[in-house]
What does this fold into?
Amino acid sequence: MRKACWCLFAVLLLMCTAFGAFAAEDAGRIFRTTNTLMPKWDPAVGSDYASGASIINLYDPLLFPTGDGGVKPWVAESWTISEDGLTWDFKIRDGIKFHSGNPLTADDVAYSMKRLLSIGEGYAYLFYAYVDSVEVLDERTVRFRCKTSYGPLLNSLVRFFIVDKKLLEANYAKEGDYGEFGDYGKAFLLERDAGSGPYNVDDVKTNISVGGSIFRDYWAGFGENVPEKFIFYASNEAVTVKTMMSRRELEASDHYQTTENIRAMLDSDPTLATAHNYTGGGVNLWMNNQKAPADDPKIREAIGYLVDYATLCSLILPDSKQKKSIIPSNSFGYEETFALSLDMEKAKAAIAASKYADSIARHPVELVWNSESADREKIALMIQAAASQIGLTVNIIELPWSTIVANSAKVDSSPMMSIISITPVTSDSAAQFVSQLRSKTAGTWENMNWVNDKTLDAMIDSAITIVDPEKRAEAYKAIQEYCAERFTFIPLTETPERIVYQASYVEMNPQIGLQGYSFYLRDIKVFPEKRGK
It folds into this structure.
């Protein structure tokens, strides 16, 4: 433990000094913030929060999300769909340039989808089961053919980002997992970007930070006072964040800071404020449905009754509300299906009805929490204390996020239970059903539930084919009811992102309630002349 602490201290010291050139008085229109880990800004690889916040600033999506849960034209300026719902033609906007200077064409769009599906990481789960082929009709038109009709396609395309084909083809590593494509440019994108977005990467310090600057030829333009530079630091250690905020070496904190640290920062500096972004994100208790005793739905149900939801929403995660379905209340097709509360008698009754009724003392439950998010420990301790009152042993395990992600790859190494914060990546519930419950997506940090339920898989697959919104919503409600009956995982809270920022010289006004968009730099304003006031 001491060795780990010293390693962390060394990393944080380097983080604080790595950008000494950006002293507060010299920083100009820079935006600096923190996150839990080094982002993966290759849009065929990254999908966690840090990666999502980076990708949206470096790349353009085919369609752009709107604040009301819809989509609007972006790289694609228009589209048509065939009567059978299988063929989609997208007209590509003229005049978009990549950071390299190469023009963005339909060929880049087709290449980006093929690359995403071949690599199969990142947001590929939104497409690989549904998109059958991609065809370039002409320089400005691309056609997607789907294997089945796919109702959520338009909403999913806000997470399909276009990469520079010519640039990547010139930078393949010969050794790789993709045959003639080598590594498909994955190594290149550890140090560079291949996007057409409003910002480009120009300074990478491995495991410390990624920095970039404004792309002045950006086709969609900029408002006044947007940041000219950015730095995303790969750590959110509380003391460091508080110190850097007080020195005005950060313009904003990450949204993982504890309630205590947020209060401490606000109390110590009246020029700081808190921005709230209601994204539908929140906290869930992931359950490995294949690990005893969590393989029994009655045990999972019992654990759901060991949570003091009122305390959780008011004291541990203020401004939260109890989450009452497997999807948040602002998602398409939402239906309230969970009615959980702190209830020891119901917890005991559920255990008594389980196959472990006579042996629960011999089956301790492991509960993993992310060491970069200290509020999670409070949730774990709450559950542990309640469990001890009914004879259930809960062993709490603290792990760094990188280890949790690595362990999620296999059912045996995935934790029995884990406290996970997750924010929707699209407004359509299908993305959450697929990423968190579908058997084919198990083995990522988003799906450590390992439900492996063929009936549920079929329900999800069928719902997604429904183009009619009303009928699709009904199918989504049935999925929620099915999961609530089996307690596939325990929803805990819907929690707004609470971001402390330098209100004296920064304006944060998030427009989009989806993962990462609190840090969409085109919606942020910086007034460096006010920094010292």
About this structure: The mean pLDDT is 92. DSSP finds 15 helices and 20 strands in the chain. The domain at 2-59+197-278+496-530 is CATH 3.40.190.10 (D-Maltodextrin-Binding Protein; domain 2). The longest helix spans residues 469-486.
